[in-house]
């Protein structure tokens, strides 16, 4: 069931503004959504997408002057109760389920069925069988949510919304934690819900998802609605220009001088962990951006963690800047040798979210001169943080703000700033642009290019093939724990997405060259 242009929109948000502590984060935003359509909402982190959706959910009250219309009628005194009453449901990136409760208890949360004074669990379990069957769930109503996968938990969230008669479903970056197969299942479900007449507001940074799913795309920039594109008007150039105010030219940066094949900054030999990584050897050159590509589970992150001594190895030697690293018992040894590693999971393994930007940049384990005699040098730390904020273009009002309050792109740059204080010879970047918007991606690519210009050897591990192709001087392809091929450099094989996919899947068999 597709929306008809002449039909009354199911949702109209008109002139929505929102101000926090004197800062206006939404500026008279309009959004129109029809039943039976997927309406994508795009924009850089900080553009106002989440704030607009929190106004829609009733979590935030809009400033005076705006209005929300459902089925053409203005809803007065709009709040969480009114949102639910009119069929608005929001599934946030951080799922809001209670893991200690069953599927049925989560679906009925806040709407529990009672028998006398007691919760009637049997009735709730029977009452959600149909919706779970409709969504193709393979788990039972009585299953504990804590035993479910992320994709299954997401399905429970959708089931809860549908069971509560949601007509407008907001999905915020729903594929971030999902595998490719789980993403395909989610897309099939979204298409099914669209055919059944639901209006779906879909928030994502991923262009491929927008092309595949959306009927229309609205773009926010700096708290303003800057335009809407219909499906037949979509293009990467148009979307990027609307989001960041510039075109795609120079998006990927590979402007540094060609690396010197004779200047090896890191030698890795026979690195293995006995499980996911088997006998990996390669050279990295000063001023080179070396991409490592492969399917999920190929062992890319595991290899990086072995080099950084974050995980135990059963074999392997490391040489950095011409010196053998004889002691490699943990990350501190790797840091002392001049190797820095940006983890793929910045929130749980990289940053201290409840600490300030300044203190995150000055973590003593990474910054050798952050303290004297065990006492933190705050004056020097403030200078260091100020210089990093300026050089990496970190968008923050003050270095004293908690890093958890920043956008994903700015969090990533804070972590990069800390690692660069090590003055590394080698920088390993694991999924450096995961969860960041297009503008922040462009800035991170600029930083990578500048690091290579400065003679640092950079390793980029990424699941985004355009990113690997666009930034790397040379690419190593990994499959089932082994480095199986080299592209670019002196290999004679071109760096293309097609070559990477064929080698990563085994469709193209190539003997790897000697390291």
Key features of this structure:
515 residues; alpha/beta; Rossmann fold; 2 domains; 18 helices
Describe this structure in words.
By secondary structure, this protein is an alpha/beta fold. The chain folds into two domains: 11-244, P-loop containing nucleotide triphosphate hydrolases (Rossmann fold, 3-Layer(aba) Sandwich); 264-505, Rossmann fold (3-Layer(aba) Sandwich). It is built from 18 helices and 24 strands. The strands form six sheets. Strands 6-9-10-3-11-12 form a six-stranded mixed β-sheet, with helices on both faces. Strands 18-21-22-15-23-24 form a six-stranded mixed β-sheet, with helices on both faces. Strand 9 (168-172), helix 7 and strand 10 (199-203) form a beta-alpha-beta unit. Helix 15 runs parallel beside helix 16 (438-453). The protein is globular and about 75 Å long. The model has no long low-confidence stretch (mean pLDDT 87).
What's this entry about, in short?
This protein has 515 residues and is of the alpha/beta class. It folds into 2 domains: 11-244, P-loop containing nucleotide triphosphate hydrolases (Rossmann fold, 3-Layer(aba) Sandwich); 264-505, P-loop containing nucleotide triphosphate hydrolases (Rossmann fold, 3-Layer(aba) Sandwich), CATH 3.40.50. Helix 15 packs parallel to helix 16.
């Amino acid at each position: 069931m597709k929306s008809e242009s002449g039909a009354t929109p199911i949702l109209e948000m008109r002139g929505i503004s929102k101000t926090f502590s004197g800062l206006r984060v939404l500026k008279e935003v309009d959004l129109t959504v029809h039943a039976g359509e997927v309406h994508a909402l795009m924009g850089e982190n900080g553009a106002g997408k989440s704030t607009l959706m929190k106004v829609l959910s009733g979590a935030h009250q809009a400033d005076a002057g705006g209005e929300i219309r459902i089925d053409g009628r203005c809803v007065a005194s709009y709040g969480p109760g009114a949102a639910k009453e009119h069929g608005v449901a929001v599934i946030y990136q951080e799922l809001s389920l209670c893991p200690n409760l069953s599927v049925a208890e989560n679906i009925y949360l806040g709407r529990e069925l009672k028998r006398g004074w007691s919760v009637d669990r049997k009735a709730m379990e029977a009452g959600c069988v149909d919706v779970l069957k409709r969504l193709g769930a393979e788990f039972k109503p009585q299953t504990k949510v804590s035993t479910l996968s992320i994709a299954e938990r997401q399905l429970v969230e959708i089931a809860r919304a549908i069971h509560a008669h949601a007509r407008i479903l907001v999905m915020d970056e729903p594929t971030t934690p999902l595998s490719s197969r789980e993403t395909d299942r989610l897309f099939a479900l979204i298409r099914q819900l669209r055919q059944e007449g639901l209006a779906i507001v879909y928030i994502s940074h991923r262009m491929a998802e927008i092309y595949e799913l959306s009927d229309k795309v609205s773009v926010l920039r700096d708290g303003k609605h800057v335009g809407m594109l219909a499906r037949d008007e979509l293009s990467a150039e148009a979307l990027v220009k609307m989001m960041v105010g510039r075109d795609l030219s120079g998006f990927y940066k590979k402007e540094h001088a060609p690396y010197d094949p004779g200047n090896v900054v890191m030698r890795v030999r026979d690195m293995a962990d006995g499980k996911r990584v088997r006998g990996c050897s390669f050279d990295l050159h000063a001023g080179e951006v070396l991409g490592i590509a492969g399917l999920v589970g190929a062992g890319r992150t595991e290899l990086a963690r072995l080099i950084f001594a974050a995980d135990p190895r059963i074999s392997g030697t490391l040489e950095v800047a011409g010196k053998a690293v004889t002691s490699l018992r943990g990350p501190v040894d790797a840091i002392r040798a001049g190797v820095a590693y940006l983890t793929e999971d910045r929130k749980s393994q990289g940053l201290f979210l409840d600490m300030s930007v300044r203190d995150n940049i000055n973590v003593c384990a990474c910054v050798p001169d952050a303290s004297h005699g065990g006492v933190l040098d705050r004056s020097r730390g403030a200078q260091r943080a100020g210089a990093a904020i300026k050089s990496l273009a970190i968008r923050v009002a003050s270095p004293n703000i908690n890093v958890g309050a920043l956008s994903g792109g700015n969090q990533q740059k804070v972590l990069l700033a800390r690692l660069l204080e090590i003055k590394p010879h080698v920088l390993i970047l694991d999924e450096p642009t995961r969860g960041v918007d297009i503008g922040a991606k462009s800035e991170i690519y600029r930083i990578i290019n500048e690091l290579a210009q400065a003679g640092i050897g950079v390793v980029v591990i990424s699941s985004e093939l355009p990113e690997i192709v666009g930034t790397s001087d040379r690419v190593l392809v990994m499959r089932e724990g082994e480095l199986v091929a080299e592209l670019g450099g002196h290999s004679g094989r071109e760096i293309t997405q097609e070559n990477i996919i064929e080698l990563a899947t085994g469709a193209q068999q190539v003997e790897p060259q000697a390291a």
